[in-house]
Design brief:
Blueprint: H1 8-30, H2 33-49, H3 60-90, H4 100-119, H5 122-132, H6 138-145, H7 149-166
Length: 167
């Protein structure tokens, strides 16, 4: 049985009571007031979309912190992916450098791929990357991982299904 979504009134009260604290907490974590404001906003948006109003309970700051921590992790992962991509294209000759529009499209795709890979169980991700990046055959992966060929195929199926879901 799913819980009811938080009421707009409870969210408004939560916002007025805790927004300043949350934004300050995020500012200390990020060192940037505008990014903190964005993530505080995103925290309340996520809360509005949540179906777990009971989680607000008597410790709303703990629940807000839980949501905000997840958003922080996403933010830092995106920065890491963006930095790696920008470092890579900085090595290209200027004539081959992608346009700003192409950079944004590629970056968004890389972020989605990263999120998809992170959603997979560790072993599935490792097997999937061995096949896709290292270009190992399923049999080679099975031998390296000391698993059956059928198990490797199951992991690959999970990886491909995750790719389809992320598309």
């Amino acid at each position: 049985m799913s819980a009811a979504a938080p009421s707009p009134q409870s969210i408004a009260t939560l916002y007025s009571d805790h927004h300043g604290w949350l934004q300050g907490w995020l500012r200390r974590k990020l060192g940037d007031a505008s990014q903190a404001a964005d993530l505080a906003h995103d925290t309340y948006v996520r809360l509005l979309q949540s179906r777990r109003s009971a989680a607000l309970g008597e410790q709303p700051r703990a629940f807000l912190t839980h949501i905000a921590k997840g958003l922080l992790v996403d933010h830092w992962r995106r920065q890491e992916v963006e930095r790696a991509y920008l470092d890579t294209i900085a090595l290209l000759p200027e004539a081959l450098a992608p346009s700003p529009e192409t950079r944004l499209m590629v970056l968004e795709t890389l972020v989605r791929i990263d999120a998809m890979l992170c959603s997979l169980p560790e072993q599935t991700c490792e097997i999937f990357l061995m096949a896709q990046l290292d270009e190992l055959t399923y049999q080679q992966i099975a031998e390296r991982q000391q698993l059956s060929l059928a198990t490797i195929k199951r992991h690959m199926r999970k990886g491909f299904l995750a790719c389809l879901a992320a598309a």
